[in-house]
Amino acid sequence: MTVFAVEYVYDAESSDARDASRPAHREWTAGLVREGALLASGPYTDGAGALLIFKAADEKALNELLKQDPFAAAGAISGTRTSVWAPLTGLLADHAA
To answer: Of 2-11, 58-67, 68-77, 88-97, which range is least confident?
Structure first.
């Protein structure tokens, strides 16, 4: 499995869409945590986006997961940046390939 860092970018205009879909988004992320696919996630304190740390077989599998996010369906995400990440130390180091 590969570890991916995914950054979401939010437009200020998407706050209503995020507010409306947040309960479903959090239910979705909680399910991914239970499955072991999501290692950590949370918003930036300035409201401009969020960081999500995933484990997935490859980028194609990751992109299929991201399409299922209620925030994506609501049009609340204006951009994403996905990077393969290799945590070498700390709590997530055991997840690196």
So the answer is: 88-97
CA gap 86, 94 in Å, rounded: 10
- HEC secondary structure over 15-45: HHHHHHHHHHHHHHHHHHHHHCCEEEEEECC
- Statement: residue 92 has pLDDT above 80: yes
Q: Whats the size of the chain, residue-wise? A: 97
Please, are residues 32 and 26 in contact by the beta-carbon 8 Å criterion? no
Cβ atoms within 10 Å, residue 9: 14
